[in-house]
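Exercise 7. Given the encoded structure of a 401-residue chain, write a plausible sequence.
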């Protein structure tokens, strides 16, 4: 099958370190490994180099420079210019995939849902071929809540067109499925497909990466971007309490992001700087070995109304065979079986988190049992399994067209 994979968000470079970038590459590679030919049309290729089993084409548009933000209404003009550029990228993607389809032929269009793009459903309609759309976040609501939004009616119309026009919507969690259905998606054509992991890369036999200052310590680990909604404040408070009880604990934070300065400042203020290692951004190939270096891996999400995440870190922790301590929220409490494949704690409760970590430190046999069970469960959450399911779903759609 020949597949056009569309990603219109300039904030998600295909060759990048973000979780979304990892998702694009891993899913495309899994589909390609099944023998399908994938062409990625993206708004941002990215500067890095990764092994990718697909052709990649970057599609961009020229835009006029907006006035400085210091000018009257300058900030608003900047937002408007970015939104118009995104609309232009969507149109350029639609036009480009149409030209490529007439030249080379596609059987299927697969688009990663972006706030400003209906390129996939529009091209599919014109070419009379099926379109699958992957939904990873409630983008319109996030934009309204956390950022500025000028062309609100246009964004809402695009969301309705995409949700209503796709032959199949693939939401990464049940709350996202409900979100899409509430905004016009057909419940019969909206399915849940959680994120996955590459168990050839993440597995218990991975050799741990050596790190200065952690030998002989009980390493509590976190992987991800340092953002507010990842619960780093809860993790740091719990770790401070643990260090107050024993100097044996060490915190390993793998990643970087907007809260890096806050993490460093908290560590200094709490006199934890010698007990905390923050790696910053690292190549994705190093992540499995750093997870293996952890004695306990943590997903400390705070309480969030409508928690919709399908955390990559969770599946990666489990695949490496690390005992997991995670928040009892959303999809997590369905993936982690409390007491069997990990331990769950109450979101936003550092005392409960510290108690669960301390329990694991005091019980090596429990750590081993949880890690082994988690690794076995991760075998059912692979990118390969996701790709096979999507292709099985797409087959009848392609045949009917």
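Solution.
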């Amino acid at each position: 099958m020949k597949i056009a994979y569309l990603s219109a968000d300039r904030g998600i470079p295909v060759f990048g370190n973000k979780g979304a970038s990892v998702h694009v590459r891993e899913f495309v590679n899994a589909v390609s490994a099944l023998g399908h030919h994938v062409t990625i049309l993206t708004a941002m290729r990215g500067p890095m180099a990764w092994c990718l089993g697909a052709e990649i084409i970057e599609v961009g548009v020229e835009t006029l420079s907006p006035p400085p933000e210091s000018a009257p209404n300058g900030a608003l003009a900047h937002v408007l210019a970015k939104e118009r550029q995104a609309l232009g990228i969507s149109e350029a993607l639609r036009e480009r995939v149409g030209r490529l389809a007439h030249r080379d032929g596609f059987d299927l269009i697969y688009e990663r849902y972006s706030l400003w793009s209906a390129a996939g459903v529009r091209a599919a309609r014109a070419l009379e071929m099926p379109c699958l759309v992957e939904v990873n976040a409630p983008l319109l609501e996030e934009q309204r809540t956390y950022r500025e939004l000028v062309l609100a009616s246009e964004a809402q119309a695009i969301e309705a067109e995409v949700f209503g026009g796709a032959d199949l919507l693939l939401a990464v969690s049940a709350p996202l499925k409900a979100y899409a259905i509430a905004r016009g998606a057909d419940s019969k054509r909206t399915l849940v497909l959680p994120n996955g992991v590459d168990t050839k890369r993440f597995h218990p036999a991975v050799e741990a990466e050596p790190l200065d200052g952690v030998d002989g310590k009980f390493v509590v680990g976190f992987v991800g971007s340092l953002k507010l909604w990842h619960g780093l404040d809860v993790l740091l408070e719990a770790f401070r309490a643990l260090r107050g009880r024993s100097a044996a604990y060490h915190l390993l934070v793998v990643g970087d992001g907007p809260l890096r300065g806050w993490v460093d400042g908290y560590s200094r203020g709490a006199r934890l700087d010698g007990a905390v290692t923050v790696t910053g951004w690292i190549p994705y190939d190093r992540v499995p070995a750093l997870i293996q270096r952890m004695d306990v891996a943590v997903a400390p999400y705070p309480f969030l109304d409508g928690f919709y995440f399908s955390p990559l870190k969770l599946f990666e922790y489990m695949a490496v065979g690390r005992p997991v301590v995670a928040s009892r929220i959303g999809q997590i409490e369905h993936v982690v079986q409390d007491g069997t494949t990990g331990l769950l704690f109450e979101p936003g409760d550092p005392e409960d988190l510290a108690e669960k970590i301390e329990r694991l430190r005091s019980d090596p046999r429990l750590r081993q049992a949880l890690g082994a069970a988690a690794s076995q469960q991760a075998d059912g959450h692979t990118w390969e399994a996701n790709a096979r399911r999507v292709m099985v779903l797409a087959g009848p759609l392609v045949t009917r067209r």
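Remark. The domain at 218-378 is CATH 3.40.50.2000 (Rossmann fold). Students should compare their own answers with the one above.
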